[in-house]
Specification:
The protein is mostly beta strands. 0% of the residues lie in helices and 54% in strands. The mean pLDDT is 96.
Length: 238
């Protein structure tokens, strides 16, 4: 019998810093919930809205796999490795912070907000050489199927590579359609986050921005009750 944990959208941490409207699925910055520190190796899932012309100044990271997914608008990234480029919807950016990097994130459009998901996954290898990658994932390739956005660096699966036995999938499910997923490794769990729409999984209804963690299972199925956009994180639980 699978173990599940439900996280309602309106129970996420919330911080409004003028130009930044942020919702935190897990404890972050000044928001702390001892029951929501992480889900296995998934440490951060932030749902950020950044005002036009604003952004995060240069700041450091180390020994973390950082994955950024832009849902709406554009985000300009600049880092100490020399990269400077914008991320737009359907693009995914991964950054292995490793021994340490500095980066900034900025909304270059003064007239439009940007909505992004930023996730942090604990790495399985520390002090690696920092690396960066970015790729477009066409929306039509995930209709009623799982589109692999991220997979382990030593694995031949599709997706950008990170230093962890973790996978990230996205799917656009039409009403009444289902997708099933079998875990790659015993001991992995899945954190299912509904970007938009409504689905059911493991007997639980999930609406927009709700999430469900599933562990102690071999597989699961997700069924859409309306057109839905869903992201799935498969991560080791310890």
């Amino acid at each position: 019998m699978a173990t599940t944990i439900f996280h309602a959208a309106d129970k996420r941490g919330h911080a409004k810093h003028g130009w930044l409207d942020a919702h935190h699925s897990f404890s972050f910055a000044n928001w702390y919930d001892p029951t929501k520190v992480h889900f296995g190796m998934l440490r951060v899932l932030n749902d950020d809205i950044v005002d036009g012309g604003m952004g995060f100044g240069k700041h450091p990271h180390d020994n973390m796999e950082i994955i950024t997914i832009v849902l709406d608008g554009s985000l300009e990234h600049q880092d100490s490795m020399g990269h400077k480029q914008a991320i737009v919807p359907n693009e995914v950016q991964v950054m292995s912070a490793g021994t340490g990097i500095l980066h900034s994130e900025y909304n270059p459009d003064p007239n439009k907000k940007v909505n992004l998901l930023q996730t942090w996954i604990f790495p399985n290898k520390k002090n690696v050489q920092p690396r960066y990658d970015q790729k477009m994932f066409p929306a039509e390739d995930r209709v009623n199927t799982l589109q692999a956005l991220v997979s382990p660096i030593d694995n031949n699966d599709d997706g950008l590579k990170i230093h962890q036995d973790a996978w990230i999938y996205r799917t656009t499910l039409e009403a009444g359609k289902s997708v099933a997923h079998s875990f790659h490794n015993k001991g992995n769990g899945a954190y299912i986050f509904v970007i938009d729409g409504a689905v059911t999984t493991e007997g639980q209804q999930l609406n927009k921005k709700d999430a469900l963690g599933i562990s102690d299972a071999d597989s699961f199925e997700i069924t859409a009750t309306e057109q839905s956009d869903v992201i799935i994180f498969e991560v080791p639980m310890n």
